[in-house]
Amino acid sequence: MTDTQDTAAPDTTQGPRQVVEVGDTRYTLLGTAHVSRASADEVRELIASGDFDAVAIELCPSRHQSLTQPNAMGDQDLFQVFRQGKAGMVMASLALGAFQQRVAEQSGIEPGAEMREAVKACRRADLPLQLIDRDIGVTLKRVYARVPWWQRAGLIGGLLGSLLSRQKVSSEEIERLKQGDVLESTFAEFAEQSEALYTPLIRERDRYMALRLAEENTPPRYRNVLVVIGAGHLKGLAEHLSQPLPEAPGEERATLEATRPRARWWKVIPWLITALVLAGFALGFSRDTQLGWQLIGEWFLINGVLSALGSAIALAHPLTVAATFVAAPLTSLNPTIGAGFVAAGVELALRKPKVRDFSRLRHDVSSVKGWWRNRVSRTLLVFLLATIGSAAGTWIAGLRIAEQLLGH
């Protein structure tokens, strides 16, 4: 039997609460403001009260690690990050952290202070801590997958523009942070007008957290569980808990963690481009040897220059720029390796990040200049800009080859 009741908070500094009873487990859902000292204080007081035998918080393991081990990035092998294709995700996480740092500087309190306080209070009280939110990387991928391809450039551009701006964080952004976390507030402007974004960003996470609570507490392991979540998730999570949940919540949870595999034709396109370029070279030589060498020369020059330009904009080492110039035309004909990977590898060999680069990373990426000053973030920029330059060079050079062949 499931029972739901509202408990009004007489003190205006208290966050909204709902109590939901599922079988023998009583969940006290506390809606917090992510930029509020009062919320952090309230979380600490509730955990210290002794009324609860477990605490669940709106964090995933990776965000929990980021919160409790801010220098964990230093333990990562950057070369493996590039090799595994995780550079984009790392940059997105750093960009979100940059926005968080700006908010902290301007508001006097860092977003997520109530979650940090919950972690500390649980340690002091020796209470089990349950991480119930979906991994931020999975959420970002599902958000990206649901947006039509023609809207993705605008979404990414708006995201980067707002995160890297040095303008003062508006009062509207602060208010959004009081209802949701950094991820939600960043996409709030888009999500309010897009069901495609609202579903993976809010609705799916409400359901996911309900399933995680069921997993953590079935069969009943704890009698009274305090659930610390952003106020924006309070209503949705309460509704899911108030309805029967599946006997095997892990199966449904797995479906909410799945990311759509890339369509096969996306994997074919790089090989198709390579085949067309090589066919263009062959056709050029069949018509005129001089034309064939001209096509190859233009391919190497356009591709190499644009990719090297990307490395140069990232302020890469001169030898990295030279290596990018040589590698880009060749890697563009080999879909198994990218120019950005080569550029980042050379940059890491020439300018290996030091301990202080990792320790200052979160602070440095809060400013545009800091992305170029810190060796870790600069290497990520080298990878990104060299990749973009090579991609642009491939298309421009490819069109140039087609134009030359059609003109003869």
Q: How would you describe this structure to a colleague?
A:
This protein has 408 residues and is α/β, with parallel strands linked by helices. It has two domains: 2-257, no CATH class; 264-407, no CATH class. It is built from 20 helices and six strands. The protein has helices spanning 37-48, 61-68, 78-83, 87-107, 113-125, 136-146, 149-164, 171-179, 182-191, 195-216, 234-241, 249-257, 264-287, 289-313, 318-331, 339-350, 355-359, 361-364, 368-373, 375-407; strands at 2-6, 17-22, 25-32, 54-57, 129-131, 224-230. The protein has a six-stranded mixed β-sheet with strand order 1-2-3-6-4-5, with helices on both faces. Helix 6 (136-146) packs antiparallel against helix 10, helix 10 packs antiparallel against helix 12 and helix 16 (339-350) packs antiparallel against helix 20 (375-407). It starts with a strand and ends with a helix.
| Radius of gyration of CA atoms, rounded to a whole number | 25 Å
End-to-end Cα distance, whole Å, is 80 Å
Query: Approximately how much beta-strand content do the residues carry?
Result: 5-15%
Strand elements, count: 6
Give a short summary of the structure:
With 408 residues, this protein is α/β, with parallel strands linked by helices. It contains 20 helices and 6 strands. The protein has a 6-stranded mixed beta sheet, with helices on both faces.
Key traits:
408 residues, alpha/beta, 20 helices, 6 strands, disordered N terminus
List the helices and strands and how they pair.
Blueprint: E1 2-6, E2 17-22, E3 25-32, H1 37-48, E4 54-57, H2 61-68, H3 78-83, H4 87-107, H5 113-125, E5 129-131, H6 136-146, H7 149-164, H8 171-179, H9 182-191, H10 195-216, E6 224-230, H11 234-241, H12 249-257, H13 264-287, H14 289-313, H15 318-331, H16 339-350, H17 355-359, H18 361-364, H19 368-373, H20 375-407
Parallel strand pairs: 3-6, 4-5, 4-6
Antiparallel strand pairs: 1-2, 2-3
